[in-house]
Amino acid sequence: MPPQDILRRIFGYDAFRGPQQAIIDHVFGGGDALVLMPTGGGKSLCYQIPAIARQQAGHGTTIVVSPLIALMHDQVGALHEAGVEAAFLNSSLTGEDAAAVEKRLLRGELTLLYAAPERVTTPRFLAQLDALAERGQLALFAIDEAHCVSQWGHDFRPEYRALTVLHERYPGVPRIALTATADALTRADIVERLQLEQARQFVSSFDRPNIRYTIVEKKEPLAQLLRFIEREHPDDAGVVYCQSRKRVEETSAALVDAGLKSLPYHAGLPPEVRQENQNRFLREEGIVMVATIAFGMGIDKPDVRFVAHLDMPKNIEGYYQETGRAGRDGAAADAWMAYGLQDVVNQRRMIDESPAGEEFKQVMRGKLDALLALAEATDCRRVRLLGYFGEPSEPCGNCDNCLTPPVVWDGTDAARKLLSTIYRVHAASGLTFGTGHVMDIVRGKDTEKVKQFGHDKLSTFGLGKDYSEAQLRGVLRQLLATGAVGLHKVALENGHSFDTLCLAEGSRAVLKGDVPVLLRESTAAAPTKRARRGTVAAPAAQTLGVDEQVHYINLKTWRAEVAREHNLPAYVIFHDATLAEIARRRPQSLADLQGISGIGAKKLEAYGADVLRVVSEGN
Ligand code: ADP
Ligand code: ZN
Question: Does residue 338 come out as left (phi exceeding 0), alpha (psi in the -120 to 50 range) or beta?
């Protein structure tokens, strides 16, 4: 079958996305490929379709190397649902089950075999590959999450280094390596480590147009988060990232109190609880997972509708990786972050206090600065994000700054007053002070502490009395973010310590007026739900009429039962978008069902009659 027919008949999709067709043709024809595609771009089909096509052409089995044991099960389950012969080999199988899979492999019954890298390079497994190769029955090697081979990637796995044996031992078998994250350095490293110098590179745009980026000023983070979820995503699945285990626990409990289905996930939980929570997130609907960054690698749930950050990540790579888990199905999704003064202080301090060498710290500071600039930005967030990855673009129309251009006020005068106060208190006494005290002086508050140090005598005392505390806090945050103000840790006698403010290198330019300090007006009222850009599909159910909603809900109930019976996530049976389309069309016959995106031949045969029954019962 030509690839186009495989796409339609087996996977039930009408058209290839982006560079899929070019990649598939190249690999089907026996070429090597390195594929860089953002999360949700559709990498799996890039090797699954050539695998099926090459098998049909008599070339045998495709070996898929994947580091994520938890995911192999769902991937193979999805292939089964589509009627493709696939299996996995990893440490979760009993010896007996593994032997059965090996037997099927050697008999040539498998189109795809998923295996962990440490398994692929064992002498035992290589001997089996030898046997297949001798008969010309090794169709393709697919190396997923290829960045794992590089120590510059974010998830280095030494076992990946040994995969060069595949190329050396079976030079005639084509290889396709795939990853969603690779800056130039990592990409070059992948090519070298996997000996892919001859491979054709397919680099997609890293834009995720369906994700709307929003960064709000952190005031009462929990209340802000709740408002965001209640307004934009009341019944949706989402992930909330927090920095510490404690905050994960507290936040998840608060969401449950507010009536949401929420579960915690962090490395401090027992492994079986973690596993259970992850399974429920994948299999049930509308769960909000509150997690540390321990959660998420390889989670390919397509209908995560939002990713929220209650604490700021370390750098843009992390932010992009985490937010990228939203909206893999291509429907509208949100990346929402609350960002405040304390985030800047915490992240700077974490770098300062890390045991790493000065050179490494300098790199980390540079990366943090880029993220801070993104958070402080008053222009298009996406232009900045893509620019960071070396991709030029135009204002997007689908981020907070594009949708509601912020009212900007000039904080330069306030900044000067703060800076000269920080300078003067130090000049007067040799001491440094924290943010609260400095702001009190500028605002002319004669607190105990102000009087105690005679700071009401300073020439800047009360010069900024017209500014609100929130305004000054915003200015200070930006001064810290841009490196005009630094932190100086002061130890107390009781063993605690606190951060105080000092002038840093960037202060001179601000004092001289060379660098303006522009801040967004902090709007007290939350904006109303905003319109989305026309080209981005709304989540499946949002566009349905009332009657159609009834069908949609019935279909979801039916799907949940099937998924439970098969021990698979619901989206493996049918995507939300497919159910919504069925609800809309109200098919009367199998012929009506055919051609709906996501219904291939096997699914039509397996579920067609049931779906028609569910629809007719709801009429
Ligand atoms: P990635 O691995 O790149 O993150 P996936 O391979 O998981 O992405 O694909 C993301 C989603 O898009 C999946 O649910 C997949 O079924 C769907 N998809 C991929 N290609 C197409 C296509 N050509 N038409 C419709 N849906 C597609
Ligand atoms: Zn924008």
Answer: beta
